[in-house]
Amino acid sequence: METERSAPADSNRARIITAAARLLAENGREAVSTRAVSTAAGVQAPTIYRLFGDKQGLLDAVAAHGFAAYLREKTDLPPSGDPVEDLRAGWNLHIGFGLANPALYALMYGEPRPDATPPAALAAAAVLAAHIKRIAEVGRLRIDEARAAQLVHAVGGGTVLTLLATPEDRRDLTLSDLAREAVIAAIVTDAPAPAAPGPAGAAVALRAVLPQTSVMSANERSLLTEWLDRIARG
Predict the structure, then answer these.
(1) Residue 7 has what DSSP assignment?
(2) Helix 119-137 and helix 145-164: axis angle, to 10°?
(3) I want to staple 136 with a disulfide (CB 3.0 to 4.6 A). Which of 5, 41, 43, 141 is the partner?
(4) Which residues make Cβ contacts (< 8 Å) with residue 201, sequence separation at least 6?
(5) Are the C-beta atoms of 94 and 123 separated by less than 8 Å?
(6) Cα–Cα distances in Å, from 152 out to 124, 177, 198?
(7) Closest CA to 210 of 196, 226, 194, 197
(8) What SS3 class is residue 188?
(9) Which residues of the chain fall below pLDDT 70?
(10) In which residue ranges does the UniProt entry place its DNA-binding region annotation (predicted)?
(11) What distances in angstroms separate CA 65 from CA 28, 106, 139, 144, 205, one per listed residue?
(12) What is the pLDDT of residue 6?
């Protein structure tokens, strides 16, 4: 195609992702075939393989693009003075994102790949980890950061998938509120308090503020972080 030959790679990439995202949103994952995307984007099929490697690479790029756009639109806000309220807001945004973008959400979370986590899911995990860290820094986290993030992720993802599996006219959105508050009760103390007695509580508190110190090398910091995580987990 003459248009394709003259278009730079970035232009072709953007057109392909836009076309694939539209097909995904309108008709689900099965609609995102190489033939359909190449036709919709006005490119040859080999261009898709050259830019994305394979269909999974294209789907990962679509998920990353969609989630990045969502983050720019919905979460470009400075933290408030209450990190627990920020976690609540983040939970609500996550649930809303999943319900508004079921096919995209399924790309990110519907088929776990421990050896190759989709970039969009990694971005979401980083946002969640930042929320959890702020709670730990003010002394309100009951358990270690990694375990708290895993619990929020597990329950939040399960909530979205449960609601998506329910016909829209029968969805009870209070399920999300109940799940959110149950998770917060499990990981957050009622008010700022000294670290829990014993080595586990001290490890959680020190782990939260460790990035603020500059007296260790990167290797030393990594090793100490590993030790503190092990102590916090008991």
Answers:
(1) S
(2) 130
(3) 141
(4) 195
(5) no
(6) 12, 13, 25
(7) 226
(8) strand
(9) 1-9, 73-77, 191-198, 201, 205, 234
(10) 33-52
(11) 16, 14, 35, 31, 36
(12) 46
